[in-house]
Each structure stands twice: as structure tokens, then as C-alpha cells.
Amino acid sequence: MPVLEIENLVKHFSAGGGLFAGKKKPVRAVDGVSLALDRGETLGIVGESGSGKSTLGLLSLGLIPKTSGKILFLGGPVDELQGEGLTLFRRKAQIVFQNPFASLNPRMIIRDIIGRVLEIHGIVPPGEMDGRVKSLLGEVGLREDHWSRYPHEFSGGQRQRIAIARALASDPEFIILDEPTSALDVSVQAQILNLLQDLQDKRGHAYMFISHNLAVIRHISSRVAVMYLGRIMEEGPRNRIFSHPVHPYTRALLASVPKPFVTNEDIEDKVIAGDIPSPSNPPPGCRFSTRCPFCIPVCREREPERKEVGPKHSVVCHRAEEWV
Amino acid sequence: MSRILSVNNLTVHFHTEAGIVRALEDVSFSIEEGEVLGLVGETGCGKSVTALSVMGLIPVPPGKILCGTIEFGDRDLLSLDSEEMRALRGKDLAMIFQDPMSSLNPVFTAGFQVEEAIVAHEPEASGKSLLSRVVGLFKKVNISDPEQSVQKYPHMLSGGMKQRVMIAMGLSCGPKLIIADEPTTALDVSIQAQILTLIRRLQREEGSSVLLISHDLGVIAAMAQRVAVMYAGSIVECTSVNELFGNPRHPYTKGLLGAIPRLDKDQKRLAVIPGTLPDLLNLPEGCRFRERCSEALPICSSVSPRPRLIGPGHEVACHACFGN
Amino acid sequence: MARGDSRAVLVLKRICRNPMALLGLVIIALYVGVAVFAPYLAPYDPLEQDLSKSFAPLSAEHPMGCDEFGRDIVSRVIFGARTSLIIQIFSVLMALVVGVVLGAAGGYFGGWLDEFLMRCMDVLLAFPGILLALAIVAVLGPDLHNLIIAIGIYSIPQFARITRGSVITVKQNEYVTAARAIGESHFSTIVRYVLPNAVSPIIIQTTLRMATVLLTAAGLGFLGLGVQPPQPEWGTMLSTARMYLRSAPLVAVFPGVSIMIVVLGFNFFGDGLQDALNPRLKD
Question: Among candidates A283, A274, A319, A316, which has minimal Cα distance to A298?
């Protein structure tokens, strides 16, 4: 059974309000997303701003309340969890945030940042805590004597390793990684990505890897879901998505992203026209219709349904059959 | 083709509470007329300091320009006083910043800000002709609905739009040299291609030269004709873009290229440059990359390598590359 | 990887570089020293009267002269410092504890709890501070304890507001979300993650409040609603000296100047602290 299952998840943020503001349209951050995360796999979630990918991550952990839909962890609903059940879930599901400069408590030393996880879930008896913290630090490539220092004494890459150690401390079933390397230099990113892979090989947890960087997603994922304006446009095995993308958005994205080693590429005709619409005002019909070069009248009227176009490969597009 | 910009032996230090930061050390490069030179490097390499030095925007103190010349046309920018620099900035020398969100003044309309940029150098411009000139510029940078857009405030514009306004401002007086500092880093992937093709088209039409600064090798590959790679305040390699990706010689360049995740092929693990960036307060003797270099020779710990020709139009600052 | 100073050391260094803040710190230190060691420093018993020395001029034995009852003013000023410090410490402590708890709860949980608490604070704030303190003292009766309670109550809303604002800002940081993600309870999150990072504005407010409280206590004393004579308190001393302003102005000068110096001291230090603690200090 999948570790995490999401069915028709919707999250609307109400914007503004107050006596004089009148009714403002809600921000439809996540607008009907269904997916599943299997044990030990890496699901890459790719999207730009307004796609809802980060909101999806927070929702999956129950860190923000959903508007409607189902979130199931090993078959049981996440949002109904309270007390001990919730604490147990928190032990099994972890998250690493994007900004290494904001995700660690500036007032806590590293030992406590990681140690709190051990304390809350009683992972080891109090006497063994220090030892466990040190071994976790070693696992993520940091020196043991770093445990007594404060976050501000570390670089971005090192802080991200600390965040990863914190996520590992409770030996979770899956870890949500929300743009974990976007704020890091290329060379540091390579170290962190290798580390994440090594840890997964060793411990067998699953990742939901959220990023806007297509190359990184390609490198690390086994399956990929492409999000746009709160919905999944295309989903499938990593190799299929990158070698045979079907959805016009996926294809345009892959064609237009500047690639190293391809010099002076003429991307003029691969450019996706227009701006990303606001999530509080998605276009009627298919969300990509305002920018899609293949848009036909039905695209503006009706939202397309999900269609299978290959083994475990599905696409949300009226013209899907034509592309296959 | 004449030389538009020639930076020679530029050395810039910053005097901070914690000590002296040797931000740039003996940096030399040049840009020809109509050429795009890419400046690539990671955090702390000095690429932004280089851009600010050319623009004359380094705060002195705490900054200190120890030596070097910056020849623009037939003048040394470092010998000009602030009035003379001000006359150049926005006219012959334009800069596009990274974050359009914070580079535009929120209390003035977009059109007004571009008008200001023109009036600063052409005080007689005014009224209808000025406005139509601005509308023309907006059209040129592909801002939709230019007549309406000139009246919009920055918060009403999307990120891509704001960056186009910045570009319009930069281009307003027909600059000879445009310095673009990470112009697409803060933008979404699908918008990035739009802005890059815009810059390229304008550059070709106007015949301007561009100093393109980026940490993204894909952007560099797409846009630049020549590339200079910077590391910890020095230029380590400088050559044509094809040569850089096809035949990199400096160990750092090779390491950097190996660390990038690829869209076009599978990599089991990313090549990692061991170690971390040096502390600019506490730089080692000799080559700054020595501690992380797998090809280091004994001489590297005592003598800092200077750029030398290793092939036609291909310079490298490395002892190991020359075998002795 | 840079080994930095701990935050407290960095703050201290900044304060030491600021001459005004240092001056303030010195004044406060002297003030506290005088108040604590009053019995050893005062040359005479502040309550001892000697009518033969009534309004005695400045002299070697009485560097500040004597008041209308022949009591040594130096001793009364010294013991007055003690009284003031007691009022300051207890009333600010009371306001701090209550205010921080209410403000943190409102700021962290938001919603109706926040609305309710803030409206309560608004009610308290609707009264001009000194009038509120006055009203409470008038009801409870003028003595030291009631003075402390009154000043404490009227100081609560400021602490609540500052705490609430700071908590709301801090709460937006990812490390607070991270705390919940690892399973911290709300209480634990507030105590371990939010408050330690929200503390700077509260500390500054505390320091500046000390000055305000001193003035309020002196003011109430001046109006006869504070500490009652013969207990020495600077405001009360000023009040009684009012009657003799023409004939013996010096009797009013010393308590008045003392108030001024101490209030300035707290203000200088508070300002310096604000500069030292402000966000520029961030990593």
C-alpha cells in the first residue's frame, strides 16, 4: 500500500476580507490533486510559482488544514489524527524546507534542534541521546563537534545537512523535500543531492521532492508529477516524462529551459507566451488554455479529464490522444 | 570591432568589523562591441562586486579599490568623479538587477519611472513626445498593452513584466554596455525564456554589449559568446562558450560542469568538488582553489597562478594545466 | 566555518561601543547600587527629625541640606532610590508576566482568542495611564502595595501588545513550522521556539518602562496618592517641597534631579539596547 495517498485535495486560501473589503476571491492554491507515494520511491513534483507545489507539501503533513479531499497515511486519514496518533504521524513523516537560513531555530544549539525530535518521540533513552545526535551528524557529513554550535555559525549547505539530520532523527517513512537545494550553490547542491540518494539507499524512506528545477527533478526522481495552477497536468515514470512528454506545458517547459552544454540555442520559438495566471483567478476550462499553442475551443470551456497515455503515465489534456 | 570595456588588474577589498574581505584580486577581462560576455561563479566569487565596480557603485568605505583600471571607451571609469559617473549610468552604461520586485519604486507608475530614466540624461524631453517614447519602449520589450501599462504601478505587474520595465529603463538611452546581474534568477522557468530571448534580440538590434552575470550555466550557454569563470575573487578561466563546455581546462570549471544535473542524460551520481568555498577573510597562500583541487602541484601552495593562454582565445589561471 | 561570538556577547560589545548607552548603564548601575546598599550608604536615618536643623543649608555634614523637618536630604534621597526601585521591579515584573502570557497567547493562536484579548487590552489602554493608576489607587487606598498593583495593571497592555506583535512576526519563520512538523506541542513551540526569538522588543520595552514607571510613581507621589510621608520617595518629597519653593528651593532640586537622571539613564540604555538588538544583528 502506498505510504501517502492524496485524493482530490483542495486548498483555498481566503484572501483579505474585513468590513469594507467585500468578498475577495480565494486563492485556489491546490485545486483537486490526486497522487500516491510508494514506499522507498522518489516522487518529483515540478512546478512554477502559483502551481501549489509547496502548499501540497505542507498539506501532506497536515501542517495547514485542507479545504476538502483526502490525505491518507498508510491508509488512515491524516487530518483526523490527534494526540498520540498525531505524534506518531509526525514521527513517520518529515519535511526539509527550502530556506536553510530560516528553518533552524537561531536560539537552539544543533544538539537540541536534533535532540528535540529524539525527546518528543522517545527514540532513545536520555543517556544515549548525545550519542545518537552525533551519529546523525556523521551520517549527513558533519563533524561531531558541531553539535554545540548555533545555526548562524554554519553555511547554507551545512544548515541544510542539519535540517536533513533532523528529518532523519525519527527514522521516518517519507520525507517531503521542499526545494531543498534551490538556495544553494551548484557544487553544494551536488553534495546534498548525493547525500539524499545515499540516505535513501541506506534507509529506504520515500521522498516527495518538490522543485522548479527540471534538471534536478530529472536526476533524483523515479516518478514525476508536473503541476500548474493547482492541478497536476502530467504524471508518469521519470524516463517517460523526460523522453516522451505529452502535455503541451511539459513539452514547452522542457524545450524552453536553458540547458548547459547547449550553446546559443535558439529558444525564441520555444518560448511559452503570456504570464502565469493568478491562482485566485484561474482561466475557465483548462488552466493552461491561455498560453497553450495547441488550444482549441473546447479547452476554454471544459476542464479536461485525466487520460492514460502509457504505463502509469497520465495526462490532463483534451488533445492527449493526438500526441501519443 | 572595437573594445567597449577593458577591466585591468582590478583589486577590491572590503574593510569590515571581522577583517579585510579580499573580494576581487587582479581581475582582468574585456568585452568587444556587440558581444555578450558571461561571468559565472558561485557565492562569494566576486561577480556582483565586479558589476558594481564597473558601475561605480561600490561603497567606499568600507570598500577600497586598491588598484586597476576600468577602461570604457577611452576613459578610465575609476578616475571619474561621481558627477561624471552619474552622467554615464543609465545612458551609456545600464544595469539590470536581479530582483525586479525590489528594484522598482512602488509609489510611482512604471511609465513614470522610465520617463525619469530618460529625463535624467535628456532634461529637455517632456510631455507627449516623452510619453510616446516610453510607450514605444514598452512595445519594444513586449509589454502587453503598452498604453495602459505605462499607467500601472509595480504591484499590478507580474515578475516578468517588472523585469521588462527594468529592461526598458536600461535601454531607454541606448546604452553601449548593459550589465545584467542574474536577470532571470528571480523569475519562473517559463518566463525566463521570454526574458532571455528579449535581451538577446534587443542586444542584437541595438548592437549593445552585455556583461551577463549568472550562476546558472544554462543561461550562460544560451546567451553568451564568451565566458569568464570566477572563483573566490579571481578569474580562473576565460574562453568562448563552446570551448568552455567542450574543453574546460581549469579543475574548478571541470568540477562545476560535472556537478550540474543534466536534462539530456542520466547520471548515477553527481561529481562533487570536495571541501567548501574558502573564507574570503582568511584566504590561503597561492592558488585559492588548491585545497579542493585534485590536480594540485607543490607550486600551487605558494604562488598564485596568473591567467595564461592555453589555446587560441582560451586563458586559464592554473599551474597544473601547464604541466610544470 | 566561522566561529562567532554568542549573541549575548555581540550585543554587549555593541552596547559598549555606544557612549550614551554606556552612560545609561552606568547610571542604572549606580542607582541600583545605591538602592541596594542604602542602609550602609546613608549617613543618617532618613526618618530622624531634628527641628533645629530645619532647612539647614548645604554643609559638610549635610551635603544636600535638610528638609522642613530637619531630616538629612542625602539619606532621604538614598532611601528614596530604594523605594523607587522596589516599585519599579515589582510592578514591571507583574506587567511583564501577565502581558507576555496574554500577548503570546493572542499572537500565537490568533482567531477569537486574539480578538478577545486585544479588546480587553484596548479597554485598559482607553484610559490615560496615569489616570488609570490614579483611579485604582484611589479605590484601593494609597500605600506602597496598591501603588505597585496600580502601576502594574496600567503597564500590562503595552507588554501584551509588544509581545503579540513580536510573536506574530516570529511565528512566520519556517523554524516555527518545523517545530510543529517534528511534533512539538503548542506550548512547547511557544516556549522553546517563539518566545526566545521574540524577546528583543520585550526587553527593550522593559527597560523603557522602568523609566515610565518611575515617573508615574513620582507623579502619584506628587499628587499625594503614592507613597505616604514620612516614607522617603522622590515624588512625595517633591510634593512637600513645593510649598517651600520660594524660601528653600534646594529641597526640591535634589529629588527632582534624581528623578531626571535615573529616567534619562534608563532611556539612554533602552535606546542603546534597541540599536544593539535590532535585526541588523542577524546572521
Answer: A319
What tens digit of pLDDT does each residue of A99-145 get?
A: 999 999 999 999 999 999 999 999 999 999 999 999 999 999 999 88
Please give the CATH number for the structural domain made up of A4-259+266-323. Answer: 3.40.50.300
Q: Which of A63-77, B283-297, C224-238 has the lowest mean pLDDT?
A: C224-238
Q: What's the number of CA atoms in the CB half-sphere (13 Å) around residue A289?
A: 17
**Residue from A300, A283, A313 nearest A50 by CA:** A283
In the predicted structure, residue C243 carries a pLDDT above the cut 90? no
B169 contacts B178 by C-beta, under 8 angstroms: no
Supply the pTM of this predicted model: 0.87
Share of chain C above pLDDT 70, in %: 95
- Determine the pLDDT at residue B186: 83
Option in A63, A105, A107 nearest C181 (CB)? A63
Coil, strand or helix: which one is B224?
Answer: coil
Model pLDDT for residues B287-296, shown as the tens digit of each residue: 999 989 988 8
Domain ranges of chain A: 4-259+266-323
Q: Which residue type does B277 have?
A: L
Burial class (CB in 10 A: 0-12, 13-18, 19+), B204: exposed
- C-alpha A232/C-alpha A238 separation (Å) is 15
Task: Compute the nearest-CA separation of C14 from chain B (Å).
Answer: 12
Q: Which CATH class is domain C18-36+66-281?
A: mainly alpha
Looking at this protein, which amino acid is placed at residue B295?
A: E
Query: What per-residue string of b and e applies to B35-56 under the rule 16 or more CB within 10 Å gives b?
Result: bbbbbbbbbbbbbbbbbbbbbb
Q: pLDDT by residue (tens digit) across B240-257?
A: 999 999 999 999 999 999
Residue C5 pLDDT class (50, 70, 90 cuts): low
Q: Which of B235, B199, C165 is nearest to A267 (CA)?
A: B199
Which residues in chain A have Cβ-Cβ distances shorter than 8 Å to C192? 105, 108, 116
* Contact flag A259-B222 (C-beta cutoff 8 Å): yes
Chain-wide mean pLDDT for chain C? 87
Residue C283 has pLDDT above 60, yes or no: no
Q: Give the per-residue SS3 of chain A.
A: CCCEEEEEEEEEECCCCCCCCCCCCCEEEEEEEEEEECCCCEEEEECCCCCCHHHHHHHHCCCCCCCEEEEEECCEECCCCCHHHHHHHHHHEEEECCCCCCCCCCCCCHHHHHHHHHHHHCCCCHHHHHHHHHHHHHHCCCCHHHHHCCHHHCCHHHHHHHHHHHHHCCCCCEEEEECCCCCCCHHHHHHHHHHHHHHHHHHCCEEEEEECCHHHHHHHCCEEEEEECCEEEEEEEHHHHHHCCCCHHHHHHHHHCCCCCCCCCCCHHHCCCCCCCCCCCCCCCCCCCCCCCCCCHHHHHCCCCEEEEECCEEEECCCHHHHC
CB pairs < 8 Å spanning A and C: 73
Q: Note whether A218 contacts B43, CB cutoff 8 Å.
A: no
Phi (first) and psi of residue C60, to 5 degrees = -65, -40
Under 8 Å CB-to-CB from B158, ≥6 apart: which residues? A275, A276, B191
The pLDDT tens digits of the residues spanning A35-44 come to 999 999 999 9
Residue ranges covered by each domain of chain C: 18-36+66-281
* Residues in chain B whose Cβ is within 8 Å of chain C: 18, 276, 279
What is the spatial order of strands in the sheet that B314-316 belongs to? B93-96, B177-181, B209-214, B36-40, B226-231, B234-240, B314-316, B308-311
Q: Which residue in B has a C-alpha nearest to residue A142's C-alpha? A: B275
pLDDT of residue B324: 55
- Here the cell at position B290 is 588548491
Check whether A168 has a pLDDT greater than 90. Answer: yes
Q: DSSP of C157-172, one letter per residue? A: HHHHHHHHHHHHHHHT
